[in-house]
Amino acid sequence: MELFYLILFYTSGFIIIWAMIGYPASLKLIERIYKGKTLEKDYSHCPEVTVLIVAHNEEKVILDKLHNVLELNYPQDKLQYLVTSDNSTDNTNDIIKKFIKEYPNRKIRLYQTKDRKGKTNAQNEAQKTVTTDYLVMTDANSIMHKDSIKELMAAFTSEDIAYVSGRLSIINQESSEISSAEASYWDSDLTIREIEGRIQTITAGNGALYACRTKDYWEFDPIQSHDTAMPQLYALQGKRAIANHDAIAFEKAGEVIEDEFSRKVRMNRLILKHILPDLRILNIFRYKWFSYFYFGHRTCRYLLWISHLILFVSNALLVNNSWFFLFTFIGQLMFYLLALVRAIFKIKNKYMTLIYYYSVTIIAQWVGVYNILTGKARPFWEKAESTR
Predict the structure, then answer these.
(1) How far apart are CA 243 and CA 309, in angstroms?
(2) In angstroms, rounded to a whole number, what is the distance separating the alpha carbons of residues 65 and 52?
(3) pLDDT value of residue 155
(4) How many Cα atoms sit within 13 Å of 4 on the Cβ side?
(5) DSSP for residue 264
């Protein structure tokens, strides 16, 4: 049995360390091999585009969003605007209708779903009415940089590029320790995505701003999200999903832990499936770097919830074997104790907050797993008020 415990200990430890330290470090080394490979752009590529905005009860922000998209630096005769309202019950639809009347010379449309089935379903239904060659998808609470569409379109330099993700810039990172912790995590993740995209393909985008060819749009199940599903699909089709971080959308992160926790639970509503969504990903001879990227960036991270539990239990069973296992067990106890102290006493310390934030992330994964197993996972959610 001791050998079994050792295997569990070292395997779970490897997954955790590789996900958080090893994989990001390995990418920086790999990047040196591809040092001369940069993102190609063609600013003469200005096709007709539909900006698809998803909204559910966004009366607080929808007017700002509509004014924002009308100010985009892109040929106006090649832009259409489509707001898909996911069964909004507040004043969102009325605000949009009034705005459309005020700007009769702009190609703005409102699509209303009959039932609330979540963001992906609202996109699926509205996309069927799109006639332009390209789609730019964005959220109601995301403010787009004026050059964002120009940058997204410039990155479609070859037919094998099916998806371009922009960069989400968090504008309230100084508002609280929670939003600062999220911004720190997000900045490090953006670096990883940029390297992945330059070498071959990213493993996930972000919902604030991304684009695809209309012909390449895939009608996913409403429980899925385009952020994760689209890049995986295209990679398995032999196409590329890349990141152009000069295409920017600005958004608020949750300023209280409750909002960030709810968001992370929502993100983990398919965590079990995302560990390895398709066995073909393992075929490194066919999918090359994507297999490596997915294992390090996705599989290992989606296994953190169970890896931490296995590491702790196996370490406890091995604690009497040597000083090494005693040291690692005490280290784990101290880690979780610091997170607990930060949660109870609200101590303002950068490092304690990062430990606390990470621990909350792991708990959110557990809740996501629980929701899946109990049938409570759902495709829609309540928005976080501190992000509006």
Answers:
(1) 34
(2) 12
(3) 98
(4) 3
(5) H
Which DSSP string do the residues of 58-109 spell out, in sequence order?
-TTTHHHHHHHHHT-SS-GGGEEEEEEESS--SSHHHHHHHHHHH-TTS-EE
Provide the token pair at 150.
């120009």
* C-alpha distance from residue 43 to each of 132, 163, 281, 346 (Å): 18, 17, 33, 49
Specify the DSSP class assigned to residue 295.
I
pTM of the model: 0.93
pLDDT for 139-193, tens place per residue? 999 999 999 999 999 999 999 999 999 999 999 987 788 888 888 888 899 999 9
CATH annotation of 1-388: 3.90.550.10
The 8-class DSSP code of residue 276 comes to S
Mapping DSSP to helix (H, G, I), strand (E, B) and coil, where does residue 253 land? coil
Strands 209-213 and 161-170: antiparallel
Distance CA 246, CA 152 (A): 8
> Using CA atoms, how far apart are residues 308 and 16, in angstroms rounded to an integer?
7
Phi then psi for residue 268, to 5 deg, are: -100, 20
Q: Which two tokens stand for residue 60?
A: 């607080």
- Exposed/middle/buried for residue 382 (C-beta within 10 Å: 0-12, 13-18, 19+): exposed
From CA 142, how far away is CA 62, in angstroms rounded?
10
* 24 Cβ contact partners less than 8 Å away, ≥ 6 residues apart: 188, 191, 192
Q: What is the distance between the alpha carbons of residues 218 and 225, in angstroms, rounded to a whole number?
A: 11
161-170 and 240-251 beta bridge pairing: parallel
Give CA–CA dist 49/155, Å, rounded. 14
Residues in the chain: 388
Give φ, ψ of 365 to 5 degrees: -65, -40
Give dist(CA 186, CA 201) in Å, integer: 18
Q: What is the maximum span of the chain, computed from C-alpha positions, in angstroms? A: 76
The full DSSP string for 149-207 is HHHHHHT--STTEEEEEEEEEES-TTT-HHHHHHHHHHHHHHHHHHHHHHHS--S---T
